[in-house]
Amino acid sequence: MKNQPTMVSEEYLNSKEIIGARIESGGFYGTVRFIGTIPNYAGKWYGIEWDDPSRGKHNGSINGLQYFQTKHATSGSFIRKEKINFGKTLIEALIGKYGKEENHTIKKIHEQQIINLQKQIKAPFIEFVGFDKVSSKQSDFQSLEIVNVRGQFVSSIDKLEQLKSLFPNIRQLDLSKNLLTSWHDILDICDQLPQLYLLNVSENMLVLPENDQRIFPNITVFICGHMNLTWQDIKILSAIFPNINELRANNNNITELSCDKKHNFHNLEILDLENNPIGSWDNIVNLKVIKSLQDLSIGGIGLDKIDFKTDSEKIDYFHNLTKLCISDNNINDWTSVSELNRLPNLEELRFLNNPILNIEPIDTTVAIVVAKLGSLKVHNGRQLVGEFRIGDEFRRGCEYDYLKKYGLEWLRVKNTPERDRFLKEHNRYLTLIQLYGELEPEELKVENTSTLKNVLVSLNIIYDGKTVVKKVSPSMMIQKLKVLVQKLFKLDIIPELICLTDNNFEVPLDDDTKEINYFSVKNQDRILVKS
């Protein structure tokens, strides 16, 4: 029987002072969990728990002995010190990146200054190693307001006193994807930068501060994605940064959103919680105490239903919420979309990659969303001339199409017990009837389109100012249409195609496996070619 792994005693570990250090090796990031010798293997070994489990080989055990623990069964391995990058100080990273001479004119000026100095001290043979760079960049350092040391392997903050003297005017600092381990280090950095208002610490595995009473009211934009943070961690950090206006905490481990009236988010307007395992809409409703909230991103949180659990036409909270992103979720019913009309002032919605959107063609789903949400002005950030905004004419077309699409069902249920169910799903139907009148049965007759499926449609294909008219079958695959266009204009690569509808609405033909009619391409539509 194979021996069960046993824990190695604490005395067996050497150099414990860097256990827990963050390292990089071959483009992979990890944490030092063990330093010492291993029986039958010469020399000193470093046990690493890798952020990417595929980089490892085991769970920290070898030959029946457990040298360290890992969260994943294959995220551990042993490597030599020579293969490890333990990083550099923040000052080294800053000078290494921003100390490079970038302005040829400035360089020439300072070269002349050095020559003049050499003449003054009558020592033309003396070489001032590095002096030209330091002198020429000193003023440049002090003028820097936006500093980015992402991925520069910063692991410590030695000589931090130089930060304020060399870089006193930093306003935006990106420390993401480095090797820092302590929030105390981050706060020490903030202490040195009185002008700082934007701080990005994403992709650093930091230990939360204990008994640190420092507060930084100047920080208003805080970015902390990919850090395995919980909502409780976020609330602790909000006490340190009490004036946050914009908080981006995507791709963390946030599962619940408890929030009471004593919260520290009184100035919060923009909140990004995308790709956290939140799941429930009830959690989102808990954010209602953040009265200043204007822009909420909750894409990819596992959301499958939206329900405010009220019959009120409008809810009495989220009064300032005008922008919402719910893309990449599991929403599979139109009633959930109808619920969003209860938001008092929703103007912009991003709603992509949800199952309900696969049932109908793109232009139909757009019309349904616009018809359901009476205050909507921007949908999926569509770009036409400037920002795509839903004008009165476009809205009228969507609402009338919606009225017509569900008109027969309405006539069937309006005097039956099914009426309430219908009006819950089609929340604005009575409003649309008031606007446009109830359609007569003769106006709601559905054409038999099955005989029209294979009728050719004429497309105006536009490339580089040239228009070519081609007749194609609505059942043609997008992939074949792209190949046709490539040959038509003798392009080197397969192009991207965009259908420009009657309303100047851009519909990317971006799924090669779909037929043309899936995108509701109609006769005489314009196809824009991009290569």
UniProtKB/TrEMBL annotation:
PROSITE patterns: CAP_GLY_1 (PS00845), CAP_GLY_2 (PS50245), LRR (PS51450)
Cellular localization per UniProt: Cytoplasm
Family of this protein: Belongs to the TBCE family. Belongs to the ANP32 family.
Organism: Hypothenemus hampei (Coffee berry borer)
Short name of any one Pfam family annotated for the protein: CAP_GLY
Subunit structure of this chain's protein: Supercomplex made of cofactors A to E. Cofactors A and D function by capturing and stabilizing tubulin in a quasi-native conformation. Cofactor E binds to the cofactor D-tubulin complex; interaction with cofactor C then causes the release of tubulin polypeptides that are committed to the native state.
A GO term from the CC aspect: cytoplasm
Primary subcellular site in the record, as a coarse category: cytoplasm
Organismal lineage: Eukaryota, Metazoa, Ecdysozoa, Arthropoda, Hexapoda
Alphabetical list of InterPro entries matching this protein: AN32 (IPR045081), CAP-Gly_dom_sf (IPR036859), CAP-Gly_domain (IPR000938), Leu-rich_rpt (IPR001611), LRR_dom_sf (IPR032675), Ubiquitin-like_domsf (IPR029071), Ubl_TBCE (IPR044079)
Keyword annotations from UniProtKB, A to Z: Chaperone, Cytoplasm, Leucine-rich repeat, Repeat
Domain CAP-Gly: 36-80
Keyword Chaperone: yes
Protein name: Tubulin-specific chaperone E
This protein's record includes keyword Cytoplasm: yes
